[in-house]
Write the structure tokens for this entry.
Amino acid sequence: MDRIDVGILGATGTVGQRLVRLLADHPWFHVSELAGSPESAGRTYAEGGGPDALDGVDEELGRRTLKDPEGEWQSGLLLSALPSGVAGPIEERLVGRGHLVVSNASSHRMDPDVPLIIPEINPDHLGITERQRERWSGTLITNPNCSVMGLALALAPLHRQFGVKAVQVTTLQSLSGAGRPGPSASEIVDNVLPHITGEEEKLAREPQKILGRFETGRGAVDAANFEVSAHVHRVPVRHGHLLAVSVALEEAAEMTRIEGALEGFTGARLDEALPSAPARPLRLVRDLQRPQPRLDRDRDGGMTVTIGRVRPCQVLDVKFTAVIHNLIRGAAGAALLNAELAHVTGFTSRGGPDDRP
Amino acid sequence: MDRIDVGILGATGTVGQRLVRLLADHPWFHVSELAGSPESAGRTYAEGGGPDALDGVDEELGRRTLKDPEGEWQSGLLLSALPSGVAGPIEERLVGRGHLVVSNASSHRMDPDVPLIIPEINPDHLGITERQRERWSGTLITNPNCSVMGLALALAPLHRQFGVKAVQVTTLQSLSGAGRPGPSASEIVDNVLPHITGEEEKLAREPQKILGRFETGRGAVDAANFEVSAHVHRVPVRHGHLLAVSVALEEAAEMTRIEGALEGFTGARLDEALPSAPARPLRLVRDLQRPQPRLDRDRDGGMTVTIGRVRPCQVLDVKFTAVIHNLIRGAAGAALLNAELAHVTGFTSRGGPDDRP
Amino acid sequence: MDRIDVGILGATGTVGQRLVRLLADHPWFHVSELAGSPESAGRTYAEGGGPDALDGVDEELGRRTLKDPEGEWQSGLLLSALPSGVAGPIEERLVGRGHLVVSNASSHRMDPDVPLIIPEINPDHLGITERQRERWSGTLITNPNCSVMGLALALAPLHRQFGVKAVQVTTLQSLSGAGRPGPSASEIVDNVLPHITGEEEKLAREPQKILGRFETGRGAVDAANFEVSAHVHRVPVRHGHLLAVSVALEEAAEMTRIEGALEGFTGARLDEALPSAPARPLRLVRDLQRPQPRLDRDRDGGMTVTIGRVRPCQVLDVKFTAVIHNLIRGAAGAALLNAELAHVTGFTSRGGPDDRP
Amino acid sequence: MDRIDVGILGATGTVGQRLVRLLADHPWFHVSELAGSPESAGRTYAEGGGPDALDGVDEELGRRTLKDPEGEWQSGLLLSALPSGVAGPIEERLVGRGHLVVSNASSHRMDPDVPLIIPEINPDHLGITERQRERWSGTLITNPNCSVMGLALALAPLHRQFGVKAVQVTTLQSLSGAGRPGPSASEIVDNVLPHITGEEEKLAREPQKILGRFETGRGAVDAANFEVSAHVHRVPVRHGHLLAVSVALEEAAEMTRIEGALEGFTGARLDEALPSAPARPLRLVRDLQRPQPRLDRDRDGGMTVTIGRVRPCQVLDVKFTAVIHNLIRGAAGAALLNAELAHVTGFTSRGGPDDRP
């Protein structure tokens, strides 16, 4: 089978490099083009990516020349790991030219015609891309923020079975979530930081869109109706975000039923067909000391969220702890899974840049 | 002025050593007796205390011989930094013999006749010690758990002005809170731990007793009526617990009024007379990046709790972040402040061991 | 091909667990028996091994019952990851009963009839096991200390081509080298420790035995004649020891010749036949910022030592930096490689416990 | 007594802030002017210095406006904590205008007419400033690199009593030595770095100048004649450099004599008159586990170097470990001590900027 050419935007960043690594032996996709920042165009991937870039990839890849992200791309399918600060206009231009852009950036996540997809939860939201025809010839698909990914996956079965009324979440987020260079060692050795720009806002609004309902008639998503209040922190952990979550439910439920819902969650059957989908998106552990970022982040190649310490909450209804590998399930793997979903649902065959014959 | 002799139980532990250091130049108290564990009796303080023991104290103190904690004590006033696992029966025996024991241990904190004191908040709760006469000739006074101290100080002005209805708190607790040896480096480098035995339970019940009302007639404390739900974590920080707190209030309030209440809080006037009392128990900071454990834990000698990021909570009413030095304000300094309060209110003059003439 | 049964002593420790993981899919060997400490006998491997034990191994293995290490073993071949404090007498008893014991412990390394083997360097030293017939019916083979492994591999080509006259080595050793629990986080966060019991002594004497000459006539090893002076340190790194090495050579040499010797070193051809042998035991890197423990420890599955910063030494002749994965090439992988060497040279077919028919 | 006005160049950096703090209550000097980088001119000290700037200093100081370092200065005495990359031309211009500049920068340390001073060792080297008259109307005095400071203080008594023939030194250097921002947490958590630009070169040449002899006749310093070979590393420690040192001596000596020399070293009597001079520049400890950066860096306000583990070296003659607080004794405190020395020896009364009446 011929593999489909893929271009990667933001390939030299922390998420981009992880994406390159995940694509190294991908059965469907083949990395044909790479770009970092506009300034890095013309350098090699190894030069632009720094010391970790060649870890787990072919040396040939290291010698590839980085494109200008704002130039022409041959690949119809583009995966974007661009920082949100610059992603917006670049991605718009590329979607405007007919590309299918699967993006990890936050710039367009909340646009009403842009789906915010977690394949196990809301693959049907792809339907709202019909409305993108009004402004673009291509298609833009996004995945959530890394912490939101962990939260939304944990909430999905609770929302489905009991209804979610309100959520309190405190995050302990890893260094790699800050990209390169991230906090200096002087700032965070023997310390934690109580603020991450924009993060609490994303946690407060993205889960409701993901858990919302696609209204076929209107071709729109009705966001779920609950509030999320977040406290976010950066901690000296290399990878893996931990979330301490308390949830108020619409319908009262025993802890065993809640554990059953979390444990039994598999999500849309569709994802069984996706090569990067884990056996189960959630894994429940019963050891009081778990989950821990270092011990649980790599479960199932980093694509499974680990949940533990499910217990009654004295203020809301239930509380628990979740760990997610922020770079894999929370970013690079999330975008890749969305690209796979887009492929099986026919988006990659709809063409590519408009200027192709 | 002659200084009062003080004996220290659990002097070789993390909290005990800090107590010894805080007492080094105390205007009222003089360390005359020291004990570690029963096994360390007969060794010197320097031998029992390990590498940090002599930091900031006289070398003479390092050569003192450790007593058997279960033996006879000459000092009427005993400060106990014993681990909760062993504190209970030892302290009971000493109070039974007529000593005034000011304890950091959790064993008796919730006893209805034992006051759980924070001098700025509830000095009047000392009144319940009258009821100890039924079982002991001496007196036992306790201070709260280190995280509870930070929480209770932050809640006190809110409770007083607006009423507290419910509290969600997530803690990021430092290594020194685990005593010696605490978690191994292998466990916690590049990691955080999602569980600390007994800690969530203490956060769930101690604040209500502290913020409760002393009923003069009954000579008892009516606990305040609100629920606290806690998620606790150990993080690789040497000292300083960070608390992410959300509070539901009885009475709605603007953020500026809430900030005013926190900022204006001084607590009972009584504490102006106590040498270890900080200028203010709470300090409000407005820098978005603060408070941080490493930058804020030492404020006012470690006796002031720093509060920041006061903002509306989407689920309860208000949320904020607090940092407390767990060993100082949260433990050794808390016990010392209680001893000072006991002294100015006359407890130290009531005698000492019964076997004295 | 039928795989050979292997028993593992000290299986629940840091090195033992790594050994179990390395053996998970081994082409020649099959883990048939496991023992931790005598106290852990009867518990399962998962219970004895703690939270990391099941990482990368079959769940079936986690349910295996731990043997008493001092009891009977069915497997002729035993791999010992016992701590040196207890390894001596247990290993002697088992070799006395006819087992082939391949040990990572230091107890017998310097015995004149016990070979201290690195397959790429001195496979011929196996010849001295003939002299073990005088005291044992079985055979004991050892591998060096984890830091010595890195040093000896780096010195081997220099010794062969130029002669080594003297060595200064400073180590920055990782936490996992200290076993479980190892240093507490309170000791080593924001700190390094300047002493590791017994380590400088091992660095001072093991390399000379490894680089010594096997005298066929006498059946003995003549140790190489040079001094090693070591300064050792524990640093807050999870895995990977870094060595800063200065060497005085018998014969003057340009840096390019020295780099050539290091780069070209492959060692005894024999090891091409061993499944755990890396493509090359040494890898030379020319980036000034390398090698680094985190970036280089896992090279070639952790079996290759990375060398960099080769430059003239102002006091001796040449200096360089080396990084070795202490648990893999420096311990578990070293023992396994020796077991493979013993197998291809016929040691495993010589029988097993004497009480077998 | 009227305090002397002092201006601080590079005041907002890691070393500069420490200098400001050390000067907070100085008996002789008063901070009258502050400058950071040219870009920060016009901002306040608190704005330019970041979150730590106000730690331990008056809030009034935080509101001071930063000068342009290249503009006019009123204070005759200037302390420079400028980064070496920019210090050279700025300092030259100011010395050219008649200022006494006491600098921590490396730019001019090796100039034959610029003294490289450690008051306890070579105060007489100030004599070479006579030769600065040929090019400047002011005077430039420098202190050594932070690691060199620790090394030179340890070598001084050995050099005096036994003669130093050769030195091997390996450093484990703290994060604060890298200034702001320094290495990112992603680089150095779970890692050490084997290279620091320019550091091995400084260690190879500065000690010989410091330990050299001032030839009164020629008005020049004859550098001591020995080689220093260095391996330098960055480790995840906040403050405090550890040095593992091996020394070859001219004259053989027992360990007890060497310990006696180190222990008895007080240095030039002159320094008793300097307020920042420690009781002793070296302290010898005999605990095998010491010195450690975290436990020993703050000895005597950070001005004393701690030495331990003195033992025979198998390759050179003696080896030992030293810990120095890199920001205090190794930088800010070193410059301040030199300023005090310059004051008592009359340099501050020789005038100031030429344009003063």
Remarks:
- The two ends of chain D are 23 Å apart (CA to CA).
- Chain D touches chain B at residues 51-52, 55, 189-190, 287, 289-290, 292, 295 (CB under 8 Å).
